[in-house]
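Colleagues,

Please find the record for the four-part complex below.
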Amino acid sequence: MSSDLGAPPAVTRRLGYLLKHAQLRLAELAEPLYAPLGITGRQLALLTLFGEGPALSQQDGAARLGVDRTTMVALVDELEARGLVRREVAPGDRRKRLVRLTGEGERVREAGEEVTRQAETLLLAPLSAEDAQGLRAALGRIVRGG
Amino acid sequence: MSSDLGAPPAVTRRLGYLLKHAQLRLAELAEPLYAPLGITGRQLALLTLFGEGPALSQQDGAARLGVDRTTMVALVDELEARGLVRREVAPGDRRKRLVRLTGEGERVREAGEEVTRQAETLLLAPLSAEDAQGLRAALGRIVRGG
DNA sequence: TATTGTTATACTCTATAACTATA
DNA sequence: TATAGTTATAGAGTATAACAATA
């Protein structure tokens, strides 16, 4: 009883621990799949964000992602440098920059979303389809704020 | 259809997004509760880790938490400076430092774990008891690596 | 006056490399 | 030679403050 290193440690039952490590594991699974596309998971999230629905300004995008608008500047800079998005002055308000995907950005987004599905499938592999769906739904409700 | 800002955005259905924001929300709920104890959530996780079972060396602790051993040095430094833990040379191996909670550290750990339960309860409030349990179990299985 | 994007700057978190002591 | 802890340093990632253009 002195080398009881296999005992279930309470830290690993904390939600904070579980959420952090689930995220780490997802990143581990996903990054190698993104690498061939030449983008990071973060960048793909941005392509997904700006690629859907009506064009968003940088600030709209920042708000949705929960990051600061100054952070968004750098993120959009990266994508613009790779030719995946372009900035357009908003017709109605010349202060705003609408972020739009280029043709190449659109292609990368589609390929990336397929890869995201693969990574999520790997992460959720230990769960039944039902439990996987339940996990996603539960997280969604938590995030949208009880 | 130009100001369709309420449409469900695909980014927010990605597991990466959900996990990150669930974590952010938990931190939001928990940090104000930890503040009166004079510790951060991170520090409490360390107290929980080192407070249970047989004493762990810094490196053992680092491995369990999934951080680098150099990171662990700084984390233990903080707790030691607050008088919550002390380092002891391991009897069998003078290179190792066993991290043990002081009496004060034990008191803070207990208070902190109670607060952690409260924060988790707040986070899980939108879920039924059954779904909350299902979420914890699903995350556990994912993290332990299916 | 207020807001959007931008820049400069600083802060936090974490890891890599190199050192010391022990094994 | 290898391992545990340590230190110095550097790299992400992010935010705050101040500025220019526009509203």
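Residues 1-8 of chain A have pLDDT under 50 and may be disordered.

Comments are welcome before we finalize the supplementary table.
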